[in-house]
Amino acid sequence: MSRFTHLATTTVDVLRLEEVETRPGAWSREFVAVTVALGSRIAPAGAREMMVAEQMRVVASHVLYTEPDAGVHVQDELLETAGLNAGRRFRVTGLLPPSVPHHLKALLEEIQVATPA
Which SS3 state, helix, strand or coil, does residue 35 take? Predict the structure, then answer.
């Protein structure tokens, strides 16, 4: 059991933009789930994270804390699948060195996705 597990308050699916064959010979770029139900904690970005994001020249509205070996990359999208805010979607804008080595810390930008009518 990871030392991070007790801190997780939600789960997210990690989505990565990959080329997918839509029909024989036809390809498109789509978000594909690379990790499902990853235990995480998402919190609003604080002053320190906002300052770091500004220095990195990225946008950050939230911070993700998760397992250190979760395989989260910049430009991945995260879909929150549990908790009070299930359905929210985020884009990873940066990875930060954590204050302790038992978790991964990432800067997130909350994005809005149009719902089909």
Answer: strand
